[in-house]
Structure formats: C-alpha cells, structure tokens
Design a protein that fits this description.
With 229 residues, the protein is mostly helical. The chain has one domain. 76% of the residues lie in helices and 0% in strands. The chain contains eight helices and no strands. Helix 5 (106-118) packs across helix 6 (125-151) and helix 5 packs antiparallel against helix 8 (193-222). The chain is globular, with a radius of gyration of 19 Å.
Length: 229
C-alpha cells in the first residue's frame, strides 16, 4: 500500500514537472501581454477551491522560483567561470538560489504593502497573500530583464556594445515594472495616475538600493564579498 502511494506521488510529481514546460512560457507570455489582467487573475484564483487554483497557469511564487532557476542555469552556461567566483555560504547553488528568491521577493513585498496601505486595509496574512501573489506575477518579467541585463556586465572585460545592451535591458526592465505598478496601483487603489507614479518611483528609489544593500550584507556575512583592507 505504501509502495502504491509512493508511485502515485511520483506520478503526480512527474506530471507537475512536465506541465511546467507548457504552462511556464504560457503564463509568462500572458503576463507580458496583459499584465494588469494577470495581476487581477492571481488575486481571484485564491478565491477558488485549492485543487482548482491556477488550473490554467502557474502559481506566482512557483513562476518566480522557476524563472530564477532558469536564469541561474543560463548564467552558468554562458559564463562557467562565474560559478567559481562566489565563496562561503553563497558558493552553494541551492543557497544562492534561496538568497535570490528571498531578495527578489522584496519587491512584491514592498509593493504589496504599498497597495494595502493605499487601500487602507489591515496587514494580515489573509489580506496580504492575494496581493503578494499578484505582485509576484508583476515581478517576474522585471526579474528576468534585470538578471539578463546584468549578464551583459559579467566577464573580465565586457565590450562597449555589451555594456550598452545590458544597460538598455536594465532600463527596459525598470520602466516596464514602473509602468505596470503605476497602472495597477491607480486601478486597485483608485488613485490618479500621477499620484500613483510618484508613489511607485519613490518606492523603487528606496527598494533598489535596499536590494543591493541586502546583497552586499549577505555577501560580506558569507565571505563571498571580501572586506576592504
């Protein structure tokens, strides 16, 4: 009986993994094509029965995690030497992935709290979860573009065209994210687009340096970033 349960679990796991090859690009394309609809979709799906949630797509946190795994793998394939740069705690691939997942989740966290405060709602697990899920959808294209942009800056001596390309990709990621968050905040909180834009830009001005600071602190603590002499 236990053996049959194990086979059943393996069967479900195999199906789930294989389905990602279909639903990952499909969900990502839907976010890029209709971002505001997908943010609303994420919140609505949590009102469904648990076994029917995200039946035609991937759960937002899962989509974000898969994106980070894919980007991490592509980075190692494009620049194998970079896999040996990090030391200490972040030298382990799993630890590095967990750190990236937590670090990039700071953006859905920040904008989720902003949305709750703009709607004058209490911050509880129940009220925050659907907003965090929708914000994970918004963050995925941003994370993909930022990570790809940074890849152009890697290497010992990147050329000028690579630096320009990387810079353009980074700017495209920031602009896309800022526009989507502005439109979504204006819709969800019923704010004027101008006010929403000011809130979003201000949040990014604080969130991006905080993200970089968190990366620096973890790097110093783990030994991946050497202390200055």
């Amino acid at each position: 009986m236990d053996f049959m349960k194990l086979l059943k679990s393996l069967e479900e796991l195999l199906y789930e993994l294989i389905s990602w090859f279909v639903f990952y690009p499909l969900t990502l394309w839907r976010i890029v094509r209709r971002p505001l609809h997908m943010l609303s979709y994420a919140e609505q799906q949590l009102l469904e029965d648990e076994d029917r949630q995200f039946d035609d797509g991937l759960s937002p946190p899962v989509l974000l995690l898969i994106s980070l795994i894919v980007l991490h793998s592509l980075g190692q394939l494009s620049d194998p030497a970079s896999a040996h740069i990090l030391t200490g705690l972040l030298a382990d691939d799993w630890n590095l992935l967990v750190f990236r997942a937590v670090a990039f989740s700071l953006f859905p966290l920040v904008f989720g709290i902003i949305q709750l405060r703009a709607n004058k709602a209490r911050l509880t697990r129940t009220t925050f979860k659907p907003i965090f899920y929708s914000q994970c959808y918004a963050a995925v294209p941003f994370v993909v573009l930022i990570s790809l942009g940074l890849q152009f800056f890697s290497g010992d001596d990147p050329s000028a065209p690579m630096l320009w390309t990387g810079g353009l990709v980074l700017v495209a990621g920031l602009v896309w994210y800022a526009v989507v968050e502005t439109l979504w905040l204006a819709r969800s909180a019923k704010l004027r687009p101008f006010i929403s834009a000011i809130i979003v830009v201000t949040a990014l001005i604080f969130a991006v340096p905080f993200f970089l600071l968190a990366a620096l602190v973890v790097g110093l603590a783990s030994g991946s970033v050497p202390l200055p002499a």
